[in-house]
TrEMBL record:
It holds the Pfam family Aconitase. The keyword Transferase does not apply. It comes from Natronomonas moolapensis (strain DSM 18674 / CECT 7526 / JCM 14361 / 8.8.11). It catalyses: (2R,3S)-3-isopropylmalate = (2S)-2-isopropylmalate. Residues 466-475 have a biased composition (Basic and acidic residues). GO terms for biological process: L-leucine biosynthetic process. Pathway: Amino-acid biosynthesis; L-leucine biosynthesis; L-leucine from 3-methyl-2-oxobutanoate: step 2/4. The keyword 4Fe-4S applies. Its cofactor is [4Fe-4S] cluster. Its EC number is 4.2.1.33. It is an enzyme of class 4 (lyase). This is 3-isopropylmalate dehydratase large subunit.
Length: 486
């Protein structure tokens, strides 16, 4: 078993007792709630006439069903089921004294975007949410776990969950990323190498020079997709980048209290001589942008590679999965993903819906227009992100290029609102899952990639290498400067 890792330390600090069934009872420091998975759990409390144990540690927002067109946010929502979920959340949070970031709060957005940007997610915490992408919060050096309905009930009623301690795999990502290559490419590379179930029974500790040099938004993108690699959670040890990001955020204490908190944060980072159950190294030096060619996030290649033949996979499961994927995507082994026709470009989600994501995509869009037959959607991960992009004028680049600039929510990531693929449309998407039917149409096809790559696909109407547009952008600017100098 691991020893001296952040995971071990945070686990020990939050362990209440060992339960008779061998699991540990773990205290949850921060409980995040959204409209989809919470109504039933609140119902269970009501049935037993139980109060919420720690309303002050519980924060709610609405994301999955949130309409992303301003005029569709009027209540009651046109979609009856969505309205029911939203009003249940409003009622449950109000009845129990829980803070709810609704449409009018100015802070509404995707749970995993909102909690980090408000400074709610902090190092050394246990974070739980009825959502599989709760690992996102591990970017701060916390242990974020997705939980099911009965566990949501348990956290609401007791502040605790019963949990099994996992093995810890250290993933050293070494090297530096080239221009136009991002955190998203790192995590896709990791999943390509270790597989979609490589992390089963583990949490991933990401480290190494490539991880250390990422900013917090990049780290959030990496940790977000831990679950896509099969890991129960994923985290990065806190460092100066983490502390500086947290300083001054709404829920982060100031002055001496900050320094005190920081001392704790520093103490929970993995020791130099920590023992891991497993250590792997991934080389990030010189990797190219990655895009998926299949129907799970592990079916992915660097943009210069060709689509593998099913026979090239060792296991029968992988071979069959590849065959199924090629059929669904209407692709052939040996083909390049470059030039694969795209109908929809979707930029947003809890993986890549933050300011730097829009900023990078905007660099590609600058001076370009979305291809004529492409429907392009930019959906900020939160209203805070939207406002910041608008303050910086980033929204204008999107609008001028021909993107629809929307309000915050999960949107076409999972299509629980009106934003969905139609028929067998192909979507260049900055999201984290390319499962069949994921984006609202059973024949719809999803190609996962970084935000800059989504922007390039929007412009070309096909999968393209964003770096060509970034180069254009740079030489364009240089030319302009020269003209002015003349
Ligand atoms: C609806 C929710 C429970 C789900 C999850 O658990 O992740 C969703 O967010 C997703 O990304 O598939
Ligand atoms: S953006 Fe997508 S992955 Fe993230 S919580 Fe929403 S539906 Fe899930």
């Amino acid at each position: 078993m691991s020893e001296g890792t952040l995971y071990d330390k945070v686990w020990e600090k939050h362990k209440v007792t060992e339960l008779p069934n061998g699991q540990d009872q773990l205290f949850v420091g921060l409980h995040l709630v959204h409209e989809v998975t919470s109504p039933q759990a609140f119902g269970m409390l009501e049935e037993r006439e139980l109060d919420v144990a720690f309303p002050g540690r519980t924060y709610a927002t609405t994301d999955h069903i949130a309409p992303t067109e301003a005029e569709k946010r009027e209540r009651p929502l046109a979609d009856g089921e969505a309205e029911e979920m939203l009003s249940a959340l409003e009622r449950n949070t109000a009845d129990n004294g829980i803070t709810f970031f609704g449409f009018e709060s100015g802070k509404q957005g995707i749970t995993h975007v909102v909690a980090p940007e408000l400074g709610l997610s902090q190092p050394g915490m246990t974070v739980a949410c009825g959502d599989s992408h709760t690992a996102t919060h591990g970017a701060f050096g916390s242990i974020g776990v997705g939980i099911g309905t009965s566990q949501i009930r348990d956290v609401l009623a007791t502040g605790c969950i019963a949990a099994d301690k996992q093995h810890v795999r250290r993933i050293d990502v070494e090297g530096s990323l080239g221009e136009g290559v991002y955190a998203k490419d790192i995590i896709l590379k990791i999943i390509q190498e270790l597989g979609v179930d490589g992390g089963v029974g583990h949490v991933y500790e990401y480290g190494g020079s490539a991880i250390e040099s990422l900013d917090m938004e990049g780290r959030l993108a990496v940790c977000n997709m831990s679950i896509e690699g099969g890991a129960r959670a994923g985290y990065i040890n806190p460092d100066e980048t983490t502390y500086e990001y947290l300083r001054g955020r709404e829920y982060v204490p100031e002055g001496d209290a900050f320094e005190e908190r920081k001392a704790y944060w520093e103490s929970i980072a993995s020791d130099e001589d920590a023992e891991y159950d497993d250590v792997v190294t991934v080389d990030a030096d010189g990797i190219d942008p990655l895009v998926t060619w299949g129907i799970n996030p592990g079916q992915v290649i660097e943009i210069g590679e060709s689509i593998p033949a099913p026979e090239s996979f060792d296991s029968r499961t992988d071979r069959e999965a590849a065959e199924k994927a090629l059929e669904h995507m209407e692709l052939e082994p040996g083909q390049s993903m470059l030039g694969y026709d795209v109908d929809v470009a979707f930029l947003g989600t809890c993986t890549n819906g933050r300011v730097s994501d829009f900023e990078e995509a905007a660099r590609v869009l600058e001076g370009n227009t979305v291809a004529e037959d492409v429907r392009a959607l930019a959906v900020p991960g939160s209203e805070t992100v939207r406002e910041e992009c608008e303050r910086r004028g980033i929204d204008q680049t999107f609008i001028e290029a021909g993107f629809q600039w929307r309000r915050a929510g999960c949107s076409m990531c999972l299509a629980m609102n009106d934003d969905a693929l139609e028929g067998d449309e192909v979507c260049a998407s900055s999201s984290n899952r390319n499962f069949v039917g994921r984006q609202g149409s059973k024949d719809g096809r999803t190609v996962l990639m970084s935000p800059a790559m989504v922007a390039a696909a929007a412009v070309e109407g096909a999968v393209a290498d964003a770096r060509e547009h970034l180069d254009d952008d740079r030489s364009g600017t240089a030319g302009g400067v020269e003209e002015v100098a003349d």
